[in-house]
Amino acid sequence: MSIALGGRREAVLGKFLLDSISVGLYTNPLTPLREYIQNSADAIDELVGRGELQQDEGEIRIHVDGRNRSVCIIDNGCGVPIDRVQETLYSLGWSFKDITKNRGFRGIGRLAGLGHCDRLRFQTKARGDTQRCLSVWDAKKLKALMNSNNGKLHVAQLLQCIVDLELIDYPGNRNDHFFQVELQNVFSSRDALMDVPLIKRYVSEVAPVPFSLEQFRYGVEIESRLKTQVRDYRSYRVFVNDEQIFKPYRDLVPLSKSRSDTVRGVSFTTLRDEAGAPLGVAWYADLGLLGTLNPSSSVDGVGVRLGNMLIGDRTLMSGLFREPRFNSYLMGEIHVLDGRMLPNARRDGFEDGQVREAFFAAFAKEIGLPISRRIRGASKERSRTREKEKNLDLMAQVDRLLRIGIASEIQRDDLSRKLCVLMESSNDGDLRKETGKRIAKLAHAVHIVDRRFAGRPNSPEARRLRRICDTVYRRCPDSGAADDIIREIVKKYR
Q1: Sheet holding 243-244, edge to edge
Q2: The dihedral of CA 190, 192, 195, 197: what is its sign?
Q3: Of 296, 282, 125, nearest to 201 (Cα)?
Q4: How would residue 26 be classed by pLDDT, with cut points 50, 70 and 90?
Q5: Shortest CA distance to 204 belongs to which of 109, 296, 285?
Q6: Which residues contact 316 (CB under 8 A, 6 or more apart)?
Q7: 227-249, pLDDT tens digit by residue?
Q8: Is pLDDT above 70 for 462?
Q9: Which of 2, 93, 283, 380 counts the highest number of beta carbons within 10 A?
Q10: Least confident interval from 93-102, 359-368, 449-458
Q11: Contacts with 252 (C-beta within 8 Å, 6 or more apart), sequence order
Q12: Residue 403 pLDDT > 60
């Protein structure tokens, strides 16, 4: 049965649609930087593709002005031609970009800053134009309208209220080209968008920046390999307050405050589907798998990159290891090769589909499961080594006391118990034999009090000193320290 609907049939796009694709979508205050860097990289690529700019001439500059509470992102990419300005800067969910080539293609990324400032300003100029375009979005007014009772306000009406678009004569060279985004009167959680060190760290992790050849000697090898396997693999010169940013990878990787590991080389793996078609290419550092890398290093885990930009964070692939923490034992990247792998709107993962599932399955097969086995094997080997060292230390301690005397009966009982546990748990015949010998010798080991009171081991003074020794050993948590204290007491006892 069908129902005929009378009256207007046009869909109503209400004001909350704009809120959903801007403020609601980009909740991380640093996310706007990723979106604007992504758009800048696409703009530079377009000029490079036309042969109008060399790759190493492209620049993306971020300037954080704490005094005026503003953040400015500017690039020397193609800019937006005047005949495309209104469609590009005023439209929502629409873009000239090619979904198969460009990083950004949904036509909403430029709105990422709306939820973190009072005014969002765009300025742009394309080569050959004699005017620049200025578009100002009043984010403060947008918030007021969102909180008003006027729930019937349409998106088109809302845009008319908050967006100004004008063309201004450009006094400079008509061949200049740029795109600039400025967030004015910035506010953000924990003031993140005013935190320059935090921004530098974020950009180094997320953006398509080069490796630091000074800190990471394998960067040249990796980039050379990626350029041969990843279509249009590029890195860009990105500056934050005039400091060029590089990826955080380095030769010496911290595990904790006092421990570190050294990169011994890099391994490469191509992820393929069941038909053998390439889905991605991965590199990861050859480390000792001694433990999880320190998160403060910004290199723990294997990150997934598309267009050399990080998708999600470094934990995206953690669920494909035997234990999620195993991902943090590694340092590396996976670069997506299959154009059907599309990031979701938040860019914190990929859209569902067979290609994504094949990509994840290939990662688990080639990296997740084999590395998990290696980590567990290395952990067991370290445990065996530690246990062996512990056993050797116990034997050495017993041999020493057999030479110089037992400090306390409690000490004798404690060592005998440890030797019995070792003998019962060990499968090593020689070790069991040596342990048995020491247990027998320990039972007859001379007490230092007996040596102190030679010929009078049962005298009141000897018995009193034995009780003192037992008390010290029982109450001191460190058996080595207790041993030293007892020997000093026995030496000075009168």
Answers
A1: 163-169, 131-138, 119-125, 178-184, 70-75, 59-65, 237-240, 243-244
A2: positive
A3: 296
A4: low
A5: 296
A6: 303, 304, 348, 349
A7: 999 988 999 999 999 999 999 99
A8: yes
A9: 283
A10: 93-102
A11: 260, 261, 262, 263
A12: yes
The amino acid that residue 128 corresponds to is G
Residue 185 vs residues 36, 64, 140: alpha-carbon distances, Å: 18, 11, 10
Question: What average pLDDT does this structure show over 278-292?
Answer: 95
- DSSP code string of 100-111: TT-S--SS-GGG
Stretch 281-306: mean pLDDT: 94
Q: Please, what are the domains in the chain?
A: 16-194 (3.30.565.10), 249-377 (3.30.230), 405-492 (no CATH)
Residues forming beta bridges with residue 287, ordered by sequence position: none
Taking the model in full, what pTM does it have?
Answer: 0.80
Q: Which of 3-17, 43-57, 435-449 has the lowest mean pLDDT?
A: 3-17
Distance CA 216, CA 210 (A): 11
What is the separation of C-alpha 456 from the centre of its chain, rounded to a whole number of angstroms?
Answer: 69
pLDDT class for 1, splitting at 50, 70, 90? very low
Q: Which helix (H) or strand (E) holds 440?
A: helix 429-443
CB 254 within 8 A of CB 293: yes
Q: Residue 485: exposed, middle, or buried by beta-carbon count in 10 A (0-12, 13-18, 19+)?
A: middle
488 pLDDT more than 60: yes
- 467-473: Cβ within 8 A, 24+ apart: 469/407, 469/408, 469/409, 470/408, 470/409, 470/410, 472/408, 473/407, 473/408, 473/410, 473/411
